[in-house]
Design goal:
By secondary structure, the protein is an alpha+beta fold. Helix content is 26%, strand content 14%.
Length: 182
Amino acid sequence: MSDSEQPEWFGAWGRLWNPHRMAYIQGESKPRHEGEGEDCPFCVSPAAPMESSLVFGRGELVYGVMNLYPYNVGHVMVCPYRHVSDYTDLTAPEVGELGLFTQRAMTTLREVSGAQGFNLGMNQGSVAGAGIAGHLHQHIVPRWGGDTNFLPIISGTRSMSQLLVDTCALLREAWPHSARTT
C-alpha cells in the first residue's frame, strides 16, 4: 500500500511495528530492586537448564548469555555468577575469567557469523545507562560493514536477521569445549 493509499488517520509515514519492544520499554522483566535473588535475571539465568535458557557458555566464575533486547544480531553478555554491581567489586579471578570469556565470545561470534568488529562495554549504574544496575554485565555487540542502515535513523527500529534461539544454538555448538559445563 503506498502512502497515497493509507487511511487519513495513518498519516504520511508508513510504520514498522515492533510491539515486542513494549515489554522492554515498560520494564516488564526489570528487577524491582537491585539486590540478588529471583528478581534479578542475571542471578536466575545460570540456574536454568541450558536447553531452555539463552545461556550459551558457563565457566567457573562467569557465564555467557544472549541479550534479550539486542542492539544487533549476536549481542551477548558476560556476567559473573556473583551478584556485584561494580567492576571494582570483582575479584582478580573474576576479572580474568570475564576477560577470557569476552575473548572466547568474540572468537566464536567471528566463527559463526563473520563479525568484522565489536562494541564492548559496561554501563556502571543506572545514570550511566545500565538497565539492570545491580548485577554487572559486559556487553559484546558484533558489527559488520553496513550493518547500520536507514531503519534506525528513520524509524528508530533495527532489523534483526536471526532469532535469539537460533544465534544461541550456533554459539553453543561452536563454543570451546573447555568452557562448557552442564
